Amino acid sequence: METLNLLERSLEVKWSDGKVATFHYLWLRDNCPSGFHPSTQERLFNLTTISPDIHAVNSTFDKSTLYISWSEGAHKSAYRLQWLYENAYSPDFKKTDTSVIVPWGTEILNKLYEVEYNDLMQDDLALFNWLKAVQKSGISYVRNVPCTDEGVTDVANRISFLRQTNFGTVFDVQSKPNPINNAYTSEALPLHIDLINQEIPPGYQFLHCLVNDSRGGESTYADGFRIIEELRDTDPEAFHLLCTVTVPMRFHDTETDIRTRNTIINADENGQLVELRYSPHLVDTFDMDESMMDSFYLAFRKLMVLINDPRFVISVKMKSGDLCIFDNRRVMHGRNAFEAGEGYSGARHLRGCYVDRSDFESRLRVLGRKYT
Amino acid sequence: METLNLLERSLEVKWSDGKVATFHYLWLRDNCPSGFHPSTQERLFNLTTISPDIHAVNSTFDKSTLYISWSEGAHKSAYRLQWLYENAYSPDFKKTDTSVIVPWGTEILNKLYEVEYNDLMQDDLALFNWLKAVQKSGISYVRNVPCTDEGVTDVANRISFLRQTNFGTVFDVQSKPNPINNAYTSEALPLHIDLINQEIPPGYQFLHCLVNDSRGGESTYADGFRIIEELRDTDPEAFHLLCTVTVPMRFHDTETDIRTRNTIINADENGQLVELRYSPHLVDTFDMDESMMDSFYLAFRKLMVLINDPRFVISVKMKSGDLCIFDNRRVMHGRNAFEAGEGYSGARHLRGCYVDRSDFESRLRVLGRKYT
Fold first, then answer.
1. Contact, B319 vs B207, CB < 8 A?
2. Which segments in chain A show pLDDT lower than 70?
3. Which family does it belong to (chains A, B) (predicted)?
């Protein structure tokens, strides 16, 4: 640190590298290290115990620390300079894009990240590298997962606990009589995101193939983020409508009626994609203003056309012991129809579960303490 | 229905009550009843199989049904007139505010909705009425819940399955050595929303009092929605900042590091409140643009002052067998400090769990099929 300057509502600091940072007095007082619980690290300081006009009356610094005496109260604050530098929020300190996501089209087929079940279960570094790869591309295969009821949950629990839904914590995808959703038939399933009718759709999905002794039944995937970028480039107005107009989403059967409203695409304030909520089965009757209905339908249809574009769709036939993990809020999945045929019994059985995105990311961060 | 008129991209309908509805051709084709799975009721129709310019070439109606022949394909559509009326989206059909929420201050103490455990467990109508009351005020008490480990989950499971978090599916609130959060001490807990660091904080919270043999330890509650309305009325600019500027939220310990970014207040596109995300313990270091930092802090502090205003806070001492349910995304909770004293052992033990809002609402809708 080179110089500091006491302004009316903030402290201005010039650092040795020439960068200038402003720290507002309210921010400084609220972040005084003495205000955090020593064991839980949670903030205990109560902002209402100081006036909105609190300011520094004196401030000095040495090689490692900045000291402040305040206009009210006897308390003095001390901040590590390194902490201040790292948490500065002035224009000179604008964070650059830290997204690790790499969108893909069909070229991913040749470089799909794979890991062996045994490595994953026994080696934390293999787990860490796998999680990083999954976060990057949103899809990966695990090979040689034991074909037991617990195979899929053993893999998922290496990351975190399971996300429960109205379908349970674990679900079996196979043909059933009187199916409550289209997955439980032998028909083709077009590409979709699972459970968009939930306030937050499940994060990462795990599908473990126990049997796939059928003609057809290939799994299909497409990177929703790749497709959205294509839409944003070629039809920004359609992209904008899908990001801003909410539609009703719903699943219902005899036991449940789960509804939400959301946009089809969610991006954050910097335009970075957060999620695609695309499932033609589960969008309810559109009800936006009359003035927007036609252009919304045209935008939605344009997205659907892109989703069916062969440039983006990969097709993989799973065999017993394969497990696919994918980011259910980014990568759409589907399957081709399947049936019995010469040499095929027609049996197909996948077992699946979910782990939410925040628990996945938490695991990655905690492993990162050790491996980065 | 009185008249219909084929326009270029839509059908205009005049109803007997004078209301006029426009139905766009894309909307009509997409909602043709033939496009839904007869058993699952999910949409099977693929919008990309028709052109964006599809239109009706002929349309007639009788007492109950509207018929359409299309410009492409041999398919003809038939719609129930009642369904069309109910799903019309033109200005004449603007939905009025259907919110059932009633905000409260301290006056609620005299009319807090209560239900007996036995009634709740045995009678679906009692359950239905209770859920409606809980949705309305965001808080209610259940009396005489058996003081067993399962008491709280038995009540919660009457509604739905439990929301699991990094604290488990069930948590015990009592003093612990080396606490990982402030709740597990005997200190006062200021009003807060639980787990704002989650992408969606848990919905309804259940707290079952097993022991409260302490001096102090009263539970405190305040209706966040009532307080936000006060802020919106008295300082719309502060309200706007808290609705639009995102801040980092975080919980971390040795096992987890769960983060999200969100606004402190969430309202929907019509201005209806969705949630308050207020927890001073769990907001991380603010990092918005320098130009907004000071005014954001002033807005946040103003909200904090209102939250501590005695007009809004109720205080209730729970006794063994009491269970409080509250909407954790609306109603803040806290507690006074507790200690041993004459005639008090100082023991205090609450057991808690969560059910998410969408599962709560689903249960209410499904019971409503029978009772409304």
1. no
2. 176-179
3. Belongs to the gamma-BBH/TMLD family.
Query: A3-93 has which fold?
Result: NE0471 N-terminal domain-like (3.30.2020)
CB atoms inside a 10 Å sphere around CB B32:
16
Judge whether B266 is closer than 8 Å to chain A, CB to CB: no
Residue of A31, A157, A245, A293 best to disrupt the B interface, most CBs of B under 10 A: A293
φ, ψ (nearest 5 deg) of residue B6: -85, 110
Q: For position A183, what pLDDT does the model report?
A: 75
The angle subtended at Cα B363 by Cα B362 and Cα B369, nearest 5°, is 90
Nearest-by-CA chain A residue for B185: A40
ipTM over 0.90: yes
CATH 3.30.2020.30 in chain B, residues?
A: 3-93
Reference B347, options B219, B147, B213, B187; nearest CA is B213
Query: A352 forms bridges with which residues in the sheet?
Result: A171, A207
Q: Check B256 against A289: CB less than 8 A apart.
A: no
Question: Given this model, what pLDDT does residue B255 score?
Answer: 95
Record: contact B294-A257, CB cut-off 8 A: no
Looking at chain A from residue 59 to 98, which residues have their Cβ under 8 Å from any Cβ of chain B? 87, 89-91
**pLDDT tier for residue B95 given thresholds of 50, 70 and 90:** confident
Task: Indicate if the pLDDT at residue B347 is higher than 90.
Answer: no
Q: Is the pLDDT of residue B175 over 80?
A: no
Computed over every residue of chain B, the mean pLDDT equals: 95
Which stretches of B138-200 are DSSP H helices?
A: 151-157
Minimal Cα distance from A307: which residue of B?
Answer: B48
Count CB-CB contacts under 10 A for residue B63: 6
pLDDT for position A178: 67
**Where would I find the beta strands (DSSP E) of B237-341?**
247-252, 257-262, 265-267, 273-276, 313-316, 323-327, 331-335, 338-339
The tokens of B288 are what? 């918005």
b (16+ CB within 10 A) / e for A65-104 = ebebebeeeeeebebebeebeebbbbeebeeeeeeebebb
Per-residue b or e along A137-158, where b marks 16 or more CB atoms closer than 10 Å to that residue's CB: bbbbbbeebeeeeebbbbbbeb
| Residue from B181, B257, B305, B313 whose CB has the most chain A CBs within 10 Å, to mutate | B257
Domain(s) of CATH 3.60.130.10: residues in chain B: 106-371
Cα–Cα dist A286/B6, whole Å: 21
Q: Are A351 and A170 in contact (CB under 8 A)?
A: yes
Residue B177: what pLDDT? 63
Helix (H) or strand (E) holding B66: strand B65-70
Give percent above pLDDT 90 in chain B: 84
Q: How many CB atoms lie under 10 A from the CB of residue B121?
A: 15
Distance CA A279, CA A196 (A): 7
Q: Which CATH number fits domain A106-371: 3.90.226.10, 2.30.40.10, 3.30.70.360, 3.60.130.10?
A: 3.60.130.10
Q: How far apart are CA B91 and CA B78, in angstroms?
A: 24
